[in-house]
Design brief:
This protein is an alpha/beta fold. It folds into two domains: 130 residues, 3-Layer(aba) Sandwich (Rossmann fold), CATH 3.40.50.720; 103 residues, Dihydrodipicolinate Reductase, domain 2. Helix content is 31%, strand content 26%. It has a six-stranded parallel beta sheet with strand order 2-1-3-4-5-11, sandwiched between helices. It is globular and about 60 Å long.
């Protein structure tokens, strides 16, 4: 049986990559492509909703899919744990799932997991992330996810040290981690998690050089997983087996 997909934001950069993957993936077919002028009633009849829209639109897409009992794969940025929290009770008693993937890159998922694994061993951490100047949100969803997991990993040791956090130049605090966002031409995506302790530091860097090539393997894994998912799942690291299980 072919899984019928409603793709929201299919004309955007990520949406076009997802559309191409679906076209080549056995057992999946794009039923409808929704844009800014589309009505969410066009989700009707789909077996899976894939959301690659904008942060301001994504919550409406997710709610509309949940109302229809359709599983959702969310690739739209901006979904922090705080923003996901109101969605959890909507799914808790339903036989369906919502999968949030801040970044479809396998290398990015590994970088986030490694930063979280290292977090208990260093008292200080900061994140510097760069994206093209057309990215409309900051910090990136990847940076938010990384900061949240790093903070979770320090639950027993207490929060990171973040001196002078009230100063705007110190970045935005995400789960107690200063995050600095650069938006500039000539870059696709880059994140550096910098952990520091007495006499040493550890930098975990991930660069996206070709977004289509980097995201395609993760999208291929995420589509069948999201189709069959139950409950809330956050992060590609919960789909691939990297030996580190992260919070959903």
């Amino acid at each position: 049986m072919t899984t019928q997909v409603a793709l929201v934001g299919g004309s955007g950069k990520l949406g076009r990559i997802i559309h191409h993957v679906i076209d080549e993936l056995d057992g999946f077919e794009v039923r409808s492509v929704l844009g800014s002028a589309s009505d969410l009633s066009e989700l009707d009849g789909a077996d899976l909703v894939v959301d690659a829209s904008a942060p301001a639109v994504s919550i409406d897409v997710v709610r509309a899919a949940i109302d229809r009992g359709i599983n959702v794969l969310v690739g739209t940025s901006g979904w922090s744990q705080e923003r996901i929290a109101p969605v959890r009770p909507l799914v808790a008693d339903a036989e369906m799932g919502v999968v949030f993937i801040p970044n479809f890159s396998l290398g990015s998922a590994l970088g986030t997991a490694l930063a979280a694994a290292a977090a208990p061993f260093f008292p200080s951490a900061e994140i510097v992330e760069s994206h093209r100047d057309t990215k409309i949100d900051s910090p990136s969803g990847t940076a938010v996810r990384t900061a949240e997991l790093m903070a979770d990993a320090r639950d027993e040791r207490g929060p990171f040290e973040a001196p002078h956090g009230d100063q705007r130049a110190r970045g935005q605090q995400v789960a107690g981690v200063p995050v600095h966002s650069l938006r500039r031409p000539g870059v696709i995506a880059r994140q550096e998690a910098i952990l520091s302790g007495a006499g040493e530091s550890l930098s975990i860097v991930h660069d996206t050089i070709d977004s289509a090539a980097a995201y395609t393997p993760g999208i291929r894994l995420a589509l069948p997983f999201a189709r069959d998912a139950r409950g809330i799942v956050v992060g590609l690291e919960n789909i691939i087996d990297i030996g580190i299980r992260a919070r959903s």
